[in-house]
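Lab intake sheet, docking and co-folding queue.

SAMPLE TYPE: protein with bound small molecule
LIGAND NAME: zinc ion
LIGAND FORMAT: SMILES
REQUESTED OUTPUT: full 3D complex as structure tokens
PRIORITY: normal
SUBMITTED BY: R.K., bench team

The fields below were copied directly from the construct record.
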Amino acid sequence: MLTAETVDRIVRFDGNELPVTSLYAHVDADPGHREDLHARVTSMLDEVYPLAKNDSVDHEARLSLRADVDRIREALAQERWKPGAVAIFACSGRNLYEEVPLPRRVRDQAVVDAMPHVRPMLTVLDEYHRACVVVVDKASARLWEIYQDELREVGKVRDRVLRKPNFAAWRVEQRVRNKADELSKRHYRNVVERLEQLFRAKGFDLLIVGGHEYEVPAFIDFLPKDLRALVAGTFSVDPAEPVLAEVRANADAILQSYESAQERQLVSDTLAKVASGGLAVAGLDSCLWAGSIAAIQTLLVMDGVVVPGVVCDQSGWLARSGDTCPLCGNPTRPSPDIVDELAQEVIAEGGSVKHISDDERLAEPLTAASIRFPLPPVPAS
Ligand SMILES: [Zn+2]
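RESULT FIELD (auto-filled):
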């Protein structure tokens, strides 16, 4: 499972005078296309390899680079990468080798630089929430991390609870009840403390709370404001014996509705900006033009849409059709999926991409985008 710690380690990594190799490759879902993967990665490594033999590069750096290339070649031969994409970060001389599976495709690229090239990875991962699920009652709590369809236990809290009071006198019982309240408060405080630690360490951005229907609201009330703001939803489950499949199904459903609400909000905001003449555009043609001139801040894409088009590799011009690029006059290259080319271009230019799975308002425009500056008129092709 990909953890926040791994991503963090990569993002903060510094080769300290040694080069870092970053390689991204699209991994086709169809195993019949794996030969193509082999060819693509090999050709990227062939471009890196001359650097490892270049005399102007420091000896230690060359050895490290050569080891990076060998290690990636070995990994390629094992054919273990999952469909989507793989991002590899290597700096053998400093003990870095990480393979990060990405659930969406990214543009193939190999970069050798002083720092890992992390942006495409972060942009893809940004689309997925990392949520913490806590199932809590008055004396115990169990905590899980849920990320990209994987559920993993990350902690347990068990506190003292008063046994059933067996006192006759009302006054004593009252005291016992107060004591019990005090203990459950102390327990909630311990759970909150654990949650705060986990949120810091693991980069969670959402919290999901399960437990007895009559206990969950009291726990939510107990959360500090910043944690309460991250609650994506609650569910009812027996906290004494939470069934994993049940926790998972509830958490998945909550995440899904949270995400779809978030998507709808994003679409609303962007379309409202278009309507009011603000910095946003709707429609594939406008977005392609905006993408051609690196104007896109956030691109919204109807998930699963594939449209053929053309690309000019010289100027970065993107369009649905046209043999000649109107910007530089060079011949264009046909692309089976211009929407994907656009998304990759936006990532390369520092923007973000959100795939919208559930909003009919994007069905006709296919794409919409918030932009960084007003667009110049589209050149006649
Ligand atoms: Zn051009």
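REVIEWER NOTE: The CA atoms of residues 302 and 356 lie 5 Å apart.
SIGN-OFF: pending second check by T.M.
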